[in-house]
Amino acid sequence: YMGGEYGSSIELARSFAKELGMKYFAISRTDSDGHVFAFNEMRSTPKSSDSGCNKPCLDNDNYKCGCADELCGSLKPGQGEANVRRWSTYEVIPKKKSKRTPKTEL
């Protein structure tokens, strides 16, 4: 688990999971921070989404970072949950390394 700014940034969340050697991460954003869990196995199929799952990440609005607490608006906690959370879950896919040709000096 990691909190703070890692929970609002898709790149920080991905880096956290990658550093731990985990295959997946789930992110749930408050306003400028949030929550991230990293894990290797999906124990169940992700459930259907609602508007809370579509909150954009602060560092890249092409990705969704879910929501937590007040950012979820009028949404209620999930069944059996005490806190309001909507998690966006991602698989860690290695970035492709660029094939750069080394510069040579004359």
Description:
- It contains one helix and six strands; from the N terminus they run E-H-E-E-E-E-E.
- It has 106 residues and is mainly beta.
- It has one domain.
- Strands 1-3-2-6 form a four-stranded antiparallel beta sheet, covered by helices on one side.
- The longest helix has 10 residues, at 10-19.
- The model has no long low-confidence stretch (mean pLDDT 89).
What is the C-alpha radius of gyration, as a whole number of Å? 16 Å
Question: What letter string, H or E per element, gives the SSE order?
Answer: EHEEEEE
How does the helix and strand content classify structurally? mainly beta
Distance between the termini: 51 Å
Shape: globular
The percent range for strand residues is: 15-25%
**Number of helical segments with 4 or more residues:** 1
Major beta sheet summary: 4 strands, antiparallel
Mean pLDDT: 89
**How many separate structural domains?**
1
What's the count of strands? Answer: 6
Protein traits:
106 residues, two-stranded antiparallel sheet, 9% helix, four-stranded antiparallel beta sheet, mainly beta
Secondary-structure topology with pairs:
Layout: E1 2-4, H1 10-19, E2 24-29, E3 34-39, E4 67-68, E5 85-86, E6 88-91
Antiparallel strand pairs: 1-3, 2-3, 2-6, 4-5
In short:
With 106 residues, the chain is mainly beta.
